[in-house]
Amino acid sequence: MNQASVLDFTSASYLGLRHSWLALEPWAFLTAGVPAALAEPPSARAAARSLARLTGTESAVLAASTLHVFWDLFVALGTETITCYIDAGAYPIAGWGTERAAAHGAPVRRFPHQDAAALGRLLGAQRPARRTPVVVTDGVCPGCGSVAPIRRYLQLLQPLGGVLVVDDTQGLGLVGAGASRWTPYGRGGGGVLPMAGETSAAVLVVSSMAKAFGVPIAFVAGPGALVERYIRRSETRVHCSQPSMAHLSAAWHALEMNRRQGDRRRARLLALIGRLQAGARRIGLTAGPGSFPVQTLGAVPGIPPVRLYQRLAEAGVRTVLHRPACDPVPRCSLLVTAAHTPGQIDRAIAAIEAATADRTAAGIGSTR
What is the pTM (predicted TM-score) of this model? Predict the structure, then answer.
């Protein structure tokens, strides 16, 4: 099959940002070979300040990846004094961080996915609190597309002096302030804190720029004192390479493109997702959930997701076959980006219709 004819719905670069080297500021060297603990280029510190402003936090610092951040974060917070409470559906990398915390002696508890009531019961069972509770959650769940109840978590933590750690990798660049039923992404792309209208001093944001912004670089942002504690105690900033100058240049390009074009790209993305969902309805199927760019095809009677994935691949449509942590049932999903065209969406719908032509007549199932 001609590669040019293949439709690719596997990219999580939701805004469709490409960062060609021709569009980036040049760099004199790729890396100085110096760990971040010794010296960081001024562009890294400036990018961190811009990310803090975007996310509505006081301070931020860059890292090579969220894995680097989570390896350090809970140890930096003090495993001898904290208890971690992690959403059972959280993305695995945050979970790996809590596993390291457990290895250092911190108790780790799990609560059902985005269930604030269950978390409240867990926190209540630990009173009187001899350890500081640290709640860990995804801002936007990559499996079901739902936004964590940030305000409710903070209400539960406030009387206990706790900290909320939000992995906002899926929300950064996608959602922002002023979100509503009619404008579900809001404005600005600052993530779930601006979306929730929160500027709490009890929140740490950990995020990669690799999704909506298309740059494999990460950061931790939040109250200055907590970010400074992370910087002082981070082992990866001593023993691992810091982001390269190429990554820093791409990060600056992404932030500038978001400032100039972000809301327009988000509006285009929303329209494309609406077109996909309308097309699915037209052929008697469903796609969802909501406006999240990971659009999962609903259950097709008589055609398991694995077979549907195979048929679409044979037809030249690349999709993602996955098992979300929040609901480990196989799913076939299309990742829609602002770089797709209406014509590509229509071609995908035609391929899905052909691939499901022999489905049974009994009911169509939901996106779940």
Answer: 0.94
